[in-house]
Automatic annotation (TrEMBL):
Naturally occurring in which organism (per UniProt): Mycena indigotica
Superkingdom assignment: Eukaryota
Region forming the signal peptide: 1-18
Segments forming domain Ricin B lectin: 83-162
Protein name per its UniProtKB record: Ricin B lectin domain-containing protein
UniProt keyword annotations, A-Z: Signal
Transmembrane segment boundaries: none
Record SUPFAM superfamilies: Ricin B-like lectins
A Pfam family the protein falls into: Ricin_B_lectin
Length: 164
């Protein structure tokens, strides 16, 4: 029994290891950049931006914890950084261009706080809660803010790649 419990715990620990969320926008790849979703400060309401992923750089600023099943996120869930901060929409407003930030994580999958729930869909988009709004780039420039915009299946700025 102890062995089974230990194995389940180890499997969970591996499944929630640090993940880089990288933009899949072709213009970024054409410029020979690897751009990650990043947060520069571990504080409530810190903005979420697009930053160049640098080897040996401040990895904590772009290492996210996303529970995976069979190598992919499954269902609506929190996306964590710095251990206790979660990706969320500023002021919980479902408006085009609304800013994305981090805030203290609510315990588990708390349905009262859909503001911190994201679903990785079949188009490699992060859909917010039960809305038709997706995580998007305000621009492809280094330091650009991440925002919420209506989901478009063909949008190049809403596509994301998860890298362990």
């Amino acid at each position: 029994m102890l062995t089974q419990t230990l194995l389940k715990f180890l499997a969970l620990a591996v499944a929630v290891s640090a993940i880089q969320i990288q933009s899949a926008d072709p213009s970024i790849f054409d410029a020979k950049r690897v751009a990650c979703v990043a947060v520069k400060e571990n504080r409530e309401a810190a903005p979420v931006t697009l930053q160049n992923c640098l080897p040996g750089g401040d990895a904590a600023s772009y290492d996210w914890a996303i529970p995976l099943e069979s190598g992919k996120p499954n269902g609506a869930q929190q996306i964590r950084i710095f251990g206790d901060q979660c990706l969320e929409v500023k002021d919980s407003l479902d408006e085009e261009g609304q800013a994305v930030q981090i805030g203290p994580c609510w315990p588990g999958r708390v349905s009262e706080n859909d503001n911190q729930l994201w679903t990785f869909d079949k188009y490699s988009h992060f859909r917010w809660g039960n809305t038709n709004s997706c995580l998007d780039l305000a621009s492809t420039q280094n330091g650009a803010a991440l925002v919420l915009n209506p989901c478009y299946t063909r949008s190049t700025t809403q596509g994301w790649t998860l890298k362990l």
